[in-house]
Specification:
By secondary structure, the protein is of the alpha/beta class. 16% of the residues lie in helices and 27% in strands. It is elongated and about 60 Å long.
């Protein structure tokens, strides 16, 4: 069996020094990867650069980490022989929004390597990011797709 696992957070830059991200250690994806690899599966784990889980990946193919949602999608698209995968476990904590523009009291600001506190109060205008999960069936047409979504409201039902 051949599996792809995504784990850890993505981020979306505000400037070159700051970013929007989600809380995620990558622990679930690392656990899934190691468990399937120990059972003889060939596992490719795409891990977010911001994943902090110290658990090592054992017997797993680990391509370079991903940063943004688009970067993850590009890495998934770039996997060779995508039709050989039987399942995709999408456990990455991806951003829902990206910065569309930055404004201060005077209005929209030009992009900056690092916004200064001398610019005063800043407003971030956010727009939805690219959604990766709905694109997985097209990328992996023969695979079973399993996704996780972290919710704060509601219960197990």
């Amino acid at each position: 069996m051949n599996f792809v696992v995504t784990c850890g957070p993505s981020y979306e830059p505000i400037d070159q020094a700051r970013r929007l991200t989600n809380f995620s250690t990558g622990r679930l994806g690392i656990f899934l990867s190691n468990t399937w690899a120990a059972r003889g599966a060939r596992v490719t784990c795409l891990k977010g650069e911001g994943a902090t889980c110290p658990d090592p990946l054992r017997g797993v193919i680990v391509p370079p980490g991903f940063s943004t949602n688009q970067n993850l999608l590009d890495r998934l698209t770039g996997l060779e022989d995508r039709d050989r995968f039987h399942a995709v476990f999408h456990a990455a904590a991806l951003c829902d929004f990206r910065v569309s523009r930055v404004e201060n009291e005077a209005g929209p600001m030009a992009a900056s390597a690092k916004f200064s506190t001398r610019d005063g109060q800043l407003r971030l205008v956010l727009e939805p990011t690219i959604k990766v999960l709905p694109q997985l069936p097209r990328l992996f047409p023969g695979a079973r797709i399993i996704g996780w979504k972290y919710e704060l409201n509601g219960g197990p039902a």
